[in-house]
Amino acid sequence: MASTQARTVADTRPDSLWGRAPYPVLVADLRGVVVRCNDAAGLILPAAAPGASLTDVAPAWLCAAHTRIGSPGPHAVPADTEEALRGTIAGRRFEAHPTALGDGSVAWWLVDDTDHQLAREALLMERERTAFLAKASNVLLSSLNLGRCMDVTAQLAAESLADVALAIAPSRSSRLPVVTCLRGGTPVLADMSVDPDDVPGLGEALRGFPPVPSRWIDPAAAPAWLVPEGFGPVGSIVITPLPGHGVPAGALVLLRKAQTASFSSEEEVFARLFAARAGAAMSAARLYAEQTAITDVLMRELMPPALHQISGVDFAGGYRPSADHERIGGDFYDVHPATVEGEASLVSLGDVCGKGLEAAVLTGKIRNTLHALLPLADDHSRMLGLLNTALLNSHHARFVTLVLASARRRGNQVDLALTSAGHPSPLIIRADGTVHEADTRGTLIGALPAITAVTITESLAPGESCVLYTDGITEAKGGPMGDDLFGDERLKRALAGCVGMPAEGIVEHVQMLAAQWLGNRRHDDMAVVVISAPRTHHLSAVNGHTRGRFTA
Amino acid sequence: MRTSASPRLPRSAPLDQLAEQLWEAVSSADEYTATELVLRMLDDGADPEAVLLDVVAKVQSRVGEEWAANRISVAQEHAATAINERAVAAVSVHPAARTAATRGRITVACVDGEWHGLPARLLAEVLKLRGWRVDYLGAQVPTPHLITHLHNTRADAVALSSSIATRLPTAHAAITACQAIGVPVLVGGAAFGPQGRYAKLLGAEAWAPDARAAADHLAQGPLPRPQADHQQFDDLPHLSDQEYTMVARNSTSLVRHVFTALEDACPAMRSYSDLQRERTAEDLKHIVDFLATALYLDDEELFTWFITWTAQILQARGVPEMSVPPALVLLARELGDFPRAARILHAATRTLVTDPTTTAAGNAV
After folding, report:
1. Closest residue of chain B to A500, computed from CA coordinates
2. Which among A112, A106, A84, A97 is positioned nearest to A37, based on CA atoms?
3. How far B231 CA lies from chain A's nearest CA (Å)?
4. Which of A6, A84, A362, B26 has the fewest C-beta atoms under 10 angstroms from its C-beta?
């Protein structure tokens, strides 16, 4: 303190260094009267001169700070320094640092920190925007669903860019999908029958080409559907195209209320950055949806069919491709109902050598060929022979093993004709719990110029079943010790407990046992079809309104 | 108008009584009687939701109890479930169950490896009755299929079902995958523990004890949107010790080692038939699976509960020779370097040797 005082005394000369210091300095006494001020202070506070009252020459925030420091109590800087000792003078922002002098007067050192403040604000805003864009990217990238991308786009835009945001997707139909989101609200989808060309700039934005800049439109020119009900007067509207990857992605419409400031040029740039991300996500989602639609159409014919009861015989099937992310593979099955009531339905179940999509494509061809050969369904050997010729003549080097089964209801019984072509023999579950292999064998199809096959007949009493399966089941490797095959014996043992079970129950049971045997290990395609003679003769028990149909 | 020849039920027949009749039909694998029964209830004006939840679901939970108590075999359980499934299918196409979709869209699925599809199916039907548009994906849905489906549809939420606790690590992966693409998840099923404690642990947006509660929950308003930056690992920081990973990855060799050591420790095992040996190995496999799950969740109670239950089942099955405590001790020896696993195994062993209902099995060596 002593040294401060000494220096103050030394600096009283008008020509001192102090007087010419580049920073404004102002000394006021206990009563709030200016004692002294330097040239720099004169520049920002022109009225400041010794003898003037501080309240007349300095802004209120500085006077208040002076009074607070001068009042009794510790002269320590107040706790709320940051706020209290900062303020504006002549349009610039200053920090005021007090130095208490010995006589109760205070010297105020004023530091212009306008630029520092501006830099800080800019940095803060930049950080906020970066965080927002990072979040937007995160959320937008995570979804491949167009609707969800539109929701997210509208919601994020309403959060940071506008009072209400509309995400609009281009549409091939007459209805325009529009997701509207109010600030703090949830996005709402509406399919609107409106013409986008009624809104200046919207039609162009939705066409995606040629590229158009964001466009301001006169709120008065906006059609009513653009403004949500109860929104109040609109201050500004900007239409930003969403850039897509070669496909139009849509447009973002931002509305601000009359009382909200309109868009600054920086905000416009920011909106464009956001639009670029939203556009990329929405066009990716659109591409994905188109690809999925194509895949679905192409796969539909290759998917295993849903089975049910046909003409008094229960059928059930289950399929698990080797790769869990796929739906199709090299195993297949079909049930073809007889064209004439009372004739046998034909079941086919087979296994194309190989797995994955290529094998699946071949299963499609085989299924089609068998379908075309249905008129010959009562002669399995002939059917198989023709299939063999067809496969030998195709460019596929693959071969196939399969089982054909003709099933026909006769009284309570189901008569079966079974033919195996190089395939594991079907298993018959008898009512007494015994399980035996149907004694049919033949050569595989598509490898040799001539084939042989033996067809056998069996009969199922009510509650009995015939199980067709592919070797993916019996060759499932795993079990508690990890390296055992599921095997024929284990399958037979499991089936022995399935007497009288509904066909789909048996399918599920076999699939579950095989899956549990496998655990997480790799496996081949697995298919099971069960043909059952219904336990009770229910068809005659039901009258014309056949409730039996519901139970099928 | 149906003109069924069978006598009509009295209109006032209480649902309990109907559930009893359905149980009779289901447990004797009589699908036609079962289906007739539920259809007649609907014809007589019963509320379809009540038929599904107070009759079919009740019978199904009894099926589960009978199986858990080892009174019916897995195959019988499957038969009963298949018949119940047919009853549900019959309800769903009955005119009384026809409802227009007035709400949003919900995807209902079972976790991969979960074969008990009926609870999820019941929920799907109840949600349809309440006016939701429902996509029911069925039992054991691989997570990639579920996610592909969600990309292709605009589901408001996913309802995920799992009944067996060992599926919880898979369920967790499915939950986080759904959340990562912005779809909130409601979970249900016995796997999620008493009061759904594991649902919270695994970060699901909601949990419901049964289909009715799930439908009520969804009716209250949309589930909260998942956080975009949520990481699967944040839910379970204890996984950093790698104990779960090691036990899950080496489960087969653990089973083998313990099995061999058990043969040395229990001479009776040497006279086992192949089937008995396989059963024993399967029991060991289940023990290791539950241990891995308990490590994943860091919950020793889960393992203790499973061990107590196993001991009781073994007793019911009449397999006193298979001794659980020695198996746990051998397992603990194999996992000597894993403190969490050791703690979990000790807690279970302690409970087993002090619990009067299991001491018979425990002391049988």
Report:
1. B29
2. A106
3. 13
4. A6
